[in-house]
Amino acid sequence: MTGPAILLLLAGLGAIAWVSARARAMRLQSAARASGRRDAVHSLPGYHGWYVALWTLVPAGLFLAVWANVAPGLVTQDVLGSPAAQSLPADDFSRSAILGEARAIATGMQAGAFNPLSQGLVEPYRDAIGQYGFAGAALALVLAFAGGAYAFTRVRPDFRARTRVERLVMATLLIASLLAIITTLGIVASLLWESFRFFSMVSPVDFLFGAKWSPQSAALGYGNDDAFGAVPLFWGTIFIGAIIAMAVAIPLGLMSAIYLTQYASPTFRKWMKPILEVLAGVPTVVYGYFAALTIAPALRDFAVMIGIHGASSESALAAGLVMGVMIIPFVSSMADDSIAAVPQSMRDGSLAMGATTSETIRRVLIPAALPGVVGGVLLAVSRAIGETMIVVMAAGLAANLTLNPFASVTTVTTQIVQLLTGDQEFDSAKTLAAFALGLVLFIVTLLLNIVALRVVKKYREAYE
Amino acid sequence: MTAMMHEQQTLTPAGETRMPETKMTETKMTARDVKVFYGEKQAIKGVSIDVDMDNVTAFIGPSGCGKSTFLRTLNRMNDTVASARVEGTITLDGEDIYAPSMDVVQLRARVGMVFQKPNPFPKSIYENIAYGPRIHGLAHAKADLDVIVEKSLRRAGLWDEVKDRLHDSGTALSGGQQQRLCIGRAIAVEPEVILMDEPCSALDPIATAKIEELIHELRGRYAIVIVTHNMQQAARVSQRTAFFHLGELVEYGVTSDIFTNPRQERTKDYITGRYG
Question: In chain B, which residue's Cα lies nearest the Cα of A262?
């Protein structure tokens, strides 16, 4: 019996369970009501229906999920025990290739065999798969019937089906929320593991403090001395994300927030805020085009015109400026929130002293909103240094340790992309370096986020 | 013209007729037929009143009667509400404060305000007081500023309590101290009029008593207008009382008269606790 068919069958069983349990509950309950005791009836009939349906579906479904993972192993065991398997080669690699081919033919994913040995195994495979498939389906159906029957016998007027169903709903929601966290933990674990492997090849000190980055020199045939000093990458990241981008985003974002909260008419604000928020939704790759195709060449021409040496068509400035523009809506909306959180009474107090609007903003609102604004800026920095597309397209690959904004620099994210695109072997230091870089980036953005959220939260409390 | 006179009389029947038997003093601010609108809604319906220098004037009335709204027209704080519109004339020393030539910044330096909830800036005590003098350029040297800060805090009755911690945050003070700090902040720019919008409603009885005492001491130096819905407070601190109801000035006169011998039925009902 095939997978879809058994699932369909189970769904049908569930529906039947729902309908029959609900009908039974209705009948029993009207009988109980007739007896006149109001507390004799607990849950609505629908809950009884769900209760029985869930008992029918959940155990059988869980069993099928486990079976789907266990069965292939059992099938292979079976096939290996067949007489045709005696002639298989001894080494693991060719053995599993042959087995795989036989399985593919048996399930109809491949038409003919390359290796004559696998042809002989197709028949045992087909048998075993059919056998175990049937066994799985049968067991699932038995479970469904057993679960359904058990639950069905429990349908009584005063049975608390509602409580049980609610509990299951809660459990489902809990699992959903845990999944995201567990996945994140899994990612961190894999990051840690791969980084650990990297640091067993390259010393952490060389990695964190070395000033020369050339991980691919061996692969590209420039000699054999790969260097993994990541300082130029860290510098490039900070130069673009935390210095140039913030030099654009902080003043512009802050000023736009001040205008929107303090001066703009309600109508203007009503139009402007959503537009700014839409800007935040522009895919970063689009900003990337803009940086690489428009801003970067213009900046290079400008640099050449004013006589700066070493101007490159991929520059820190181009990437940083465009990234800054990208971050403006983010900074603006954080600053907007914190300025709006300053109580109106503070503003009134200053205005009533005869301060002008701009004096009030400069001397009262901004200082009062500063912690919130700082928190917002930290979050913006953490976004900027994790940003990838713009720097991949506009910042370049040369790991220069330079202060010249017109020169090409590279960033952590760019190098990660560089190291992991294409076919990779996951046991060389070159590839594993990407994980170490990712780990550093992860730790830094995590710390930034924690600090920023604490600052923002503390500040919110101050005015509540 | 006659129509207007007539209207004025019906709206404020007792308005000008019972002016004080106590000493006549210099009139500081006058309001004539002031109407305030919030969008379509009329909040103040033609109020005429004089505020003089030597008497504390109290505005009383039930919640929503317009007393705070009217108070805020006196230093144009209603300007900050986009939908608010003011009609009529209000003068300060004979000068129309709604005239285009009037600079609202200077007006507010002359007519200070203390709010319902203490609202010190999140700065040090010293900086809170120095705020006004700084923006109005009243002090050029640090020493001048120190003098102003000390004088203002002394007048606000706060100096002895805070002189050793002038650089602590103003928001760390108790509620009553914060309110006196706000009064000191208003005094620091040497205003002529101080408007107080229910200055004690967020304070405990002891802090309230201190503020009332302070109002007594400040009387005569500044024209003081206080909004309160505590009638005992109005009786204790003021010499003139104006009773507002539904946006109208029902009765205005010497405080003791208003409380012992109100002329209007509505005033009497309010004072005896029939509504409000």
Answer: B80
> ipTM of the predicted structure?
0.83
Q: What is the pLDDT of residue A463?
A: 63
Residue of chain A whose Cα is closest to the Cα of B188: A353
Q: Model pTM greater than 0.80?
A: no
Contacts A–B by Cβ distance under 8 A: 68
Which residue, among B119, B124, B138, would best test binding to A if mutated, counting the most A CBs under 10 Å from its CB? B119
Please state, for a pLDDT cut of 70, what percent of chain A lies above it: 94
DSSP states along A144-207: HHHHHHHHHHT--TT--HHHHHHHHHHHHHHHHHHHHHHHHHHHHHHHHHHHHHHHHHS-HHHH
Closest Cβ opposite residue A354 in set B109, B120, B123:
B109
* Average per-residue pLDDT for chain A: 85
| Residue B274 backbone phi and psi in degrees, to 5 | -70, -35
Q: Which secondary structure element, helix H or strand E, spans residue A252, and what is its range?
A: helix A245-258
Phi, psi of B153 (to 5 degrees): -65, -35
Is the pLDDT assigned to residue A223 strictly greater than 70? no
The CA distance from A409 to the nearest CA of chain B, in Å, is 43
Asked if A343 reaches chain B (Cβ–Cβ under 8 Å), the answer is: yes
Q: If pLDDT is split at 50, 70 and 90, which confidence band does A124 have?
A: confident
- Look at the alpha carbons of A312, A314, A320, A324 in this order and tell me if their dihedral is positive or negative: positive
User: What pLDDT score was predicted for residue B19?
Assistant: 47
B75, B117, B122: residue with CB nearest A352: B75
Compute the average pLDDT of residues A425-433. Answer: 79
Predicted pLDDT at A39? 66
Contact assignment for B82 to A355 by CB distance below 8 Å: no
As given in the structure block, the two tokens for residue A420 are 């992991």
All structural domains of chain A with their residue ranges: 3-159, 160-201, 208-462
Cβ(A159)–Cβ(A28) below 8 Å: no
And the tokens for B177?
Answer: 């101290």
Place of tokens 């108070």: B71
Helix (H, G, I), strand (E, B) or coil at B73: helix
CATH of domain A208-462: 1.10.3720.10
Domains of chain B: 26-271 (3.40.50.300)
Q: With CB atoms and an 8 Å threshold, state whether A349 touches B135.
A: no
Instruction: For chain B, list residues whose CB is within 8 angstroms of any CB belonging to chain A.
Output: 75, 77, 80, 82, 104-109, 112-113, 115, 117, 119-123, 131-132, 135-136, 182, 185-186, 189
Question: What is the pLDDT, as a whole number, of residue A185?
Answer: 93
Helix axes A161-201, A429-462, angle to 10 degrees: 130
